[in-house]
Design goal:
By secondary structure, the chain is α/β, with parallel strands linked by helices. It has helices at about 1-5, 5-10, 25-40, 70-85, 105-115, 120-125, 140-150, 195-205, 220-230; strands at about 15-20, 40-50, 55, 65-70, 90-95, 130-135, 165-170, 185-190, 235-245. It has a 7-stranded mixed β-sheet, sandwiched between helices. A two-stranded antiparallel ribbon has the order 3-4. α4 packs antiparallel against α8, α5 (about 105-115) crosses α7 and α8 packs antiparallel against α9.
């Protein structure tokens, strides 16, 4: 297995990550991105939407809710991309009205963006590995998951780009899903040497950080990565659902 998924294999990957929101890429696959980049591979991130959002919690000012601006989220995301040394990144929908509203976009339009119309679309990047969000209670995650599955459908290699590896990545919130939509990883990538950078990337998304008991905190993310690692006798790992693996 090490020969199959080892450094030589990963060094030749051109990975395209489709992320619903800023920080989803970090929760799910920042360690894999960092490992591939350290080996000389390529990594691109296409963000579904980015906008301001009202968060629970006082933000230090005593109120029940506080506003995080789109500019703050964009700055955090750009810094995380720099930290992970991605080759390029882009946002499909930067309008405030589209944030947390990808489920209102016709699937054919989302598919067209992912498949060929976005600057970092499949037909422009020609990825060897496509990392997509898994099913979730979040409407944007579900909308992108379904659009990605359509965009990544198999076809004749003479007619359109064929992606050999299509993997669904993890999120610390996926425990809150009904069966049979629960996340059950069957493919693991060793990120033991890249756990620190994964956690640093999450901390860059400072406006999203909450206390240690929150499942999406840096502490929660570290526990998840170490748990995934223990599932396959590693220090830390990222788990994926293998939607397609072709050699």
């Amino acid at each position: 297995m090490e020969r199959l998924w080892g450094d030589v294999f990963l060094s030749g990957q051109r990975v395209l990550v489709i992320a619903p929101h800023a920080d989803d890429e970090t929760y799910g696959c920042a360690g894999t991105i960092a490992r591939i980049k350290s080996l000389g591979g390529e990594a691109y991130v296409l963000l579904g939407s980015l906008g301001g959002i009202d968060h629970y919690g006082s933000g230090g000012r005593g109120e029940m809710m506080h506003r995080v601006s789109a500019q703050t989220r964009l700055q955090e995301f750009a810094t995380a991309m720099e930290l992970l040394k991605v080759d390029d990144w882009d946002v499909m929908f930067a309008q405030e009205s589209m944030h947390l509203a990808l489920d209102t976009v016709p699937r054919r339009d989302l598919v067209r963006l992912i498949e060929r119309d976005a600057r970092l679309a499949v037909e422009n990047v020609h990825p060897t590995m496509l990392l997509i969000p898994s099913m979730s209670y979040n409407q944007d995650h579900e909308a992108l998951f379904r659009a990605c599955m359509t965009a990544a459908r198999p076809g004749l290699r003479t007619e359109r780009h064929f992606i050999p590896l299509v993997l669904g990545y993890d999120n610390t919130s996926l425990f809150w899903s009904p069966e049979p939509e629960r996340f059950h990883p069957g493919l693991y990538i060793d990120v033991s040497d890249f756990l620190a950078v994964k956690l640093d990337a999450l901390r860059v998304h400072a406006s999203q950080i909450r206390g240690p008991l929150f499942h999406g905190s840096p502490e929660g993310l570290e526990l998840q990565a170490r748990l995934r690692g223990r599932e396959v006798s590693l220090e830390a790992a990222e788990g994926f659902v293998a939607h397609r693996v072709v050699f």
